[in-house]
Each structure stands twice: as C-alpha cells, then as structure tokens.
C-alpha cells in the first residue's frame, strides 16, 4: 500500500500529483505509482458537466466524484473543494463530506463566489478575516488531523504578492496544514514564497497558465513540497481525441492514424473485466 499523504509529507522529496478527472484518468495515474493524485475541479467540471470552472458545479456534483475516485484507487487523493460551496456551515459540511468520501486532503480557496479558474482573469477574493475564519472552521470540522487542509489564496493577481503572503500567514495561523499561493508569475516570486514560509507549500503547474513550469529539482530548491499538474492529462487526452476523431471524420476509419492507441486487452484488464470473467466462471450454471 502507498504511504498515506500525512506519512509522505513527513518524508523528504517533492510529491508530484497528476490531475485526475474521471475514473479512466484516475486508474491510469493510480497504476503509475505516484505519491498522490489531485482531483482537479477544472477537469471534473469540464469532463463531468461540460462546463467551465466558473462556480457552476455544486457540492453534490463534486463529493460524488471524490467518493468514486477515492474508492477506485489506492493512491492518496487530494481533492479540490473550491470555496467550500457557500458560507461557514457549507465549509463545515464540505470538509466532513470530503473526508468521509475518502479524500486525504481538501483544497479551499479565498475567492468570492462564483469562483473562477486560478489562471483566468477577473478573480476576486473575499476579505482576509472572512477567509481565515473559513480555514478555522475547516480545520475544526475534520475528524482527524491526518486529513489535511490546503489553504489557497488567489490574491496575487489582483492585489499583488505581498497581500498573498499576508494571507498565507493568516491561513497557517488559522490551522491550514499546506499553503497554496496561486499564480505567482515568475521564478523569483516562487523563490520569495518558498523563503517566507516554514510549512509545506504547493505549486500549481498549469501548462499555458501564469506560473512558469519548473523541474522537480527546481521546485524542491525553491522550497515546494507538492507539485500538482491539474490539466496536463486532460490537455493530452483532448489533443489525442481531437487528432483521432479528426482522422475518423476525414477517412472513415481508424486505420493509418498516426497516434498511439492503448492495447484493447490492457484497457479491459485495467478497468476490471478480469473480475467479471472470474465471477462468471465461478457462477456458471
């Protein structure tokens, strides 16, 4: 069994967590041997609902996907909890629900509702006192301190790095376990974040986003403990599907497509057909 997230945080080295958004992506990532998986709100809202990550998903939409993924993988799951889906009572309910669903950490942010993807424009944050109170409620709601509270601030884009750092300090005092300063725009800003805090830091590596994509060694040297890649898998899958479907539309066949297909036999085993076949053999009449 993989180490729990709490155990892994106490060990040296960067935790690399790929973004998962459905059960196929989750099972592939689970088999790859990562230390943690990241259930991306951006990806879940896009794949499950076909909507942009703009506050349109509800707690019910998301907690069901948390439970489904957590039950289907062995790797510890970090789950995006957006703003907590409402006021303080909603935050309490969301933390309890995500923990009961099997996640090992929840990410909560300080945006106004409706929230927006952290690498898109026009994000606004709630007052600092209100945001810190949410983190205090979240920390008190969990049944075990092994369930980690990741506090995210989106203040950098609209209010500058100093305000984001100020909020980070307040969130740690309020009980956050892991700090997520969203959307630093240079490596130097990331270095300043790493030198400011004596706490586990999360880096959000979004291809095409505001933050530079750095190597494992670079992130470790800057003081980061976790690196999430929330959209890399989704973008790769989208590119592959676009290419294949375009080829099918133009030629009428998958023959001679230049991309790579997983072996059908490998896929049916990954998705669990062997258990079905064994069950049918044991219960043949």
Could you describe the 3D structure shown?
The protein is α/β, with parallel strands linked by helices and 285 residues long. The protein has a single domain, classed as Phosphoenolpyruvate-binding domains (TIM Barrel, Alpha-Beta Barrel), CATH 3.20.20.60. It is 49% helix and 12% strand. The protein is built from 13 helices and 8 strands. An 8-stranded parallel beta sheet has the order 6-5-4-3-2-1-8-7. The longest helix has 20 residues, at 232-251. The chain is globular. The two termini are 37 Å apart. 41% of the residues are buried. The mean pLDDT is 95.
Q: Classify the secondary structure makeup into a structural class.
A: alpha/beta
Largest sheet: 8 strands, parallel
Number of helices: 13
Q: Going across the biggest sheet, name each strand in turn.
A: 6-5-4-3-2-1-8-7
- The CATH architecture: Alpha-Beta Barrel
| CATH topology (level 3) name | TIM Barrel
- The named CATH superfamily: Phosphoenolpyruvate-binding domains
What is the H-and-E element order?
HEHEHHEHEHEHHEHEHEHHH
Runs in which pLDDT lies below 50 for 5 or more consecutive residues are: none
The top-level CATH class is Alpha Beta
Query: What Rg, in angstroms, do the CA atoms define?
Result: 20 Å
Ends distance: 37 Å
* DSSP helix fraction: 40-55%
Our estimate of the beta-strand percent is 5-15%
Mean pLDDT: 95
Characterize the overall form.
globular
- Domain count: 1
Number of strands: 8
Organism: Alsobacter soli
Protein name: Carboxyvinyl-carboxyphosphonate phosphorylmutase
GO molecular function, one term: oxo-acid-lyase activity
InterPro entries: ICL/PEPM, Pyrv/PenolPyrv_kinase-like_dom, Pyrv_kinase-like_dom_sf
């Amino acid at each position: 069994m993989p180490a729990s997230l709490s155990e892994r945080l106490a060990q040296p080295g960067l935790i690399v967590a790929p973004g998962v958004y459905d059960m196929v992506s989750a099972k592939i990532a689970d088999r790859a041997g990562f230390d943690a998986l990241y259930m991306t709100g951006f990806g879940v809202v896009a794949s499950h609902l076909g909507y942009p990550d703009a506050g349109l998903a509800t707690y019910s939409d998301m907690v069901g996907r948390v439970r489904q993924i957590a039950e289907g993988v062995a790797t510890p799951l970090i789950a995006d909890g957006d703003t907590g889906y409402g006021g303080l009572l909603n935050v309490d309910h969301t933390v309890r629900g995500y923990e009961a669903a099997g996640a090992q950490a929840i990410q909560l942010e300080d945006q106004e509702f409706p929230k927006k993807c952290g690498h898109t424009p026009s994000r606004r944050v709630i007052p600092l006192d209100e945001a810190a109170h949410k983190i205090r409620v979240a920390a008190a709601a969990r049944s075990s301190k092994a369930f980690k509270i990741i506090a995210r601030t989106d203040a950098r884009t609209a209010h500058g790095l100093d305000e984001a750092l100020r909020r980070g300090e307040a969130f740690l005092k309020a009980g956050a376990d892991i700090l997520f300063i969203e959307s630093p725009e240079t490596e130097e800003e990331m270095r300043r974040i790493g030198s400011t805090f004596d706490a586990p830091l999360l880096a959000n590596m979004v291809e095409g986003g505001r933050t530079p994509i750095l190597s494992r060694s670079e992130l470790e040297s800057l003081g980061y403990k976790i690196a999430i890649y929330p959209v890399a898998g989704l973008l790769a899958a989208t590119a592959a599907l676009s290419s294949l479907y375009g080829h099918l539309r133009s030629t009428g066949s998958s023959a001679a497509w230049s991309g790579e297909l997983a072996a059908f036999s490998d896929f049916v085993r990954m998705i669990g057909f062997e258990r079905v076949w064994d069950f049918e053999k044991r219960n043949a009449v």
